[in-house]
């Protein structure tokens, strides 16, 4: 299928994307892709530099006649989110992404595609290798670990870059020009409990929540999608209150920045309640599926009776506080922006829940375009979990990117977009985390903007990139490079 992708237009963009996607590149394990991108730059005879945190900078001089234009930074991140369907057999550590064409979309077989931010990286590579595109002096900045901590951007030293304008190629709607984004912070609650023997005359069940769409916990948080961890807790809450259900294990979600699609729990109940439990659960499941029938038509909540009940369970009192803390903890949109239409200001994603063998952990990613509101919601979550006896760590805070509607480069991009597309672009701020705000801390005078091709379902196995949109994005980028303002 790779050849099918390579034949797409623009060929330079898609060929570089195929080559990039052949290299495993999970967050925090970018060693191979760092070497790949360095070798790429060196093969072109360009100046290549790797900093201490493993960001890569490749410098390309201005083309003839463009020496008097402002130097620019083209920026994208090398890592990608690794998610796969439960029934997909795939080794992200050693396999390249398997892609195919589906109408106007490029998709992956049962995994994330890596278009976020692989298409941005591939576009930068295509500019670096081009001998025909007019452009000013370029610094290509390839950052690491954007998806799980913004580590590359956080640790990029001031003074390394000489560019006056930064073009971030990590936006996922081709009719938008981003001038601002949300910041984020991790909230992690952990606790230990003394497991107890499962009572005699108990029966066991495996409960599975699956079939959810998942998605990006910033871009998709407003869509009313189901969160597998909250759905699972709703089932456990009812089972505990009405039938004394006891939890043995829970494994829900995987990554902080992905809305969890699946959760699996093993539980025990007294055999005397077995028939009534099954009947009641059918009603609860019916209610949940009816509530989410529009946004999550493929939701399944499956109960499978075990041959033998689990041997150990969480004590009733610990479970009482756990399910109530989970029910209390905010998830989804917390507040809409008062300053920008249809923009989520503050949200939380209850991303990963793990319970078993006397330990529990709940991991959240809280986002906000208002710094004080970000910490306020994080403290709300802290309170919910500390009241049940958890130790709560608030960490990994990164700032948002404050919009600058008077940006010089914005004034350049808008008329170019209008000329190419015969319509005005949407100038927006987004609820996702972009690296611009972080980079701006060490480069406060750098004028920044973000744009990119249309990508759907990022951070989920439904991730797909529009072919037509990628062509539109490429033409826009080339035109921008040819029209960068003079110094």
From TrEMBL:
Q: List the catalytic activities from the record.
A: Hydrolysis of dipeptides, preferentially hydrophobic dipeptides including prolyl amino acids
Span of domain Peptidase M20 dimerisation: 208-294
Can you supply one Gene Ontology CC term for this chain's record? Answer: cytosol
What Gene Ontology terms for biological process does this UniProt record contain?
proteolysis
What EC number(s) does the entry state? 3.4.13.18
Q: Which InterPro entries match?
A: Peptidase_M20 (IPR002933), Peptidase_M20_dimer (IPR011650), Peptidase_M20C (IPR001160)
Annotated PANTHER family? CYTOSOL NON-SPECIFIC DIPEPTIDASE (PTHR43501:SF1)
Family assignment?
Belongs to the peptidase M20C family.
Protein's name according to its UniProt entry: Cytosol non-specific dipeptidase
| Source organism of this protein record | Flavobacterium sufflavum
């Amino acid at each position: 299928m790779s050849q099918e992708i390579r034949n797409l237009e623009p060929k330079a963009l898609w060929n570089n994307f195929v080559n990039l996607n052949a290299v495993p590149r999970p967050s925090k394990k970018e060693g191979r892709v760092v070497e790949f991108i360095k070798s790429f730059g060196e093969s072109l005879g360009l100046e290549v530099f790797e900093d201490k945190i493993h960001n890569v900078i490749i410098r390309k001089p201005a083309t003839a006649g463009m020496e008097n234009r402002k130097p620019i930074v083209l920026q994208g991140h090398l890592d990608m989110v690794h998610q796969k369907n439960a029934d997909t057999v795939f080794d992200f550590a050693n396999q390249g992404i398997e892609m195919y064409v589906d109408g106007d979309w490029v998709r992956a077989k049962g995994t994330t595609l890596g278009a976020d931010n692989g298409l941005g990286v591939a576009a930068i590579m295509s500019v670096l290798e081009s001998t025909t595109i007019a452009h000013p002096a370029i610094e290509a900045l390839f950052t690491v670990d954007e998806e799980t901590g913004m580590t590359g951007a956080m640790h990029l030293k001031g003074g390394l870059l000489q560019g006056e304008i930064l073009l971030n190629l990590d936006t996922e709607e081709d009719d938008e020009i981003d001038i601002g984004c949300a910041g984020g912070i991790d909230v992690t609650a952990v606790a230990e409990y003394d497991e107890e023997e499962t009572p005699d005359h108990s029966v066991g069940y495996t409960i599975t929540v699956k079939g959810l769409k998942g998605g990006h916990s910033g871009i998709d948080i407003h869509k009313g999608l189901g969160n597998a961890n909250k759905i699972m807790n709703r089932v456990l809450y009812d089972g505990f209150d009405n039938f004394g259900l006891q939890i043995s294990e829970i494994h829900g979600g995987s990554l902080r920045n992905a809305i969890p699609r699946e959760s699996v729990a093993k539980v025990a109940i007294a055999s005397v309640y077995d028939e009534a439990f099954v009947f009641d659960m059918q009603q609860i499941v019916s209610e949940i599926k009816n509530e989410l029938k529009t946004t999550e038509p493929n939701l399944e909540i499956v109960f499978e009776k075990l041959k033998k009940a689990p041997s150990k369970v969480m004590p009733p009192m610990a479970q009482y506080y756990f399910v109530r803390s989970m029910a209390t903890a905010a998830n989804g949109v917390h507040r809409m922006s008062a300053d920008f239409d249809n923009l989520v200001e503050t949200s939380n994603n209850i991303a990963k829940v793990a319970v078993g063998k006397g330990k529990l952990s709940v991991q959240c990613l809280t986002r906000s375009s208002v710094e004080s509101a970000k910490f306020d919601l994080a403290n709300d979550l802290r309170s919910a979990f500390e009241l049940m006896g958890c130790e709560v760590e608030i960490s990994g805070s990164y700032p948002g990117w404050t919009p600058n509607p008077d940006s010089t480069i914005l004034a350049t991009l808008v008329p170019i977009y209008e000329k190419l597309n015969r319509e005005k672009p949407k100038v927006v701020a987004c609820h996702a985390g972009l690296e611009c705000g972080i980079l701006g801390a060490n480069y406060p005078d750098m004028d920044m903007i973000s744009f990119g091709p249309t990508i759907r379902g990022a951070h989920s196995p439904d991730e797909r990139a529009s072919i037509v949109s990628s062509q539109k994005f490429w033409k826009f980028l080339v035109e921008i490079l040819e029209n960068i303002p003079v110094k």
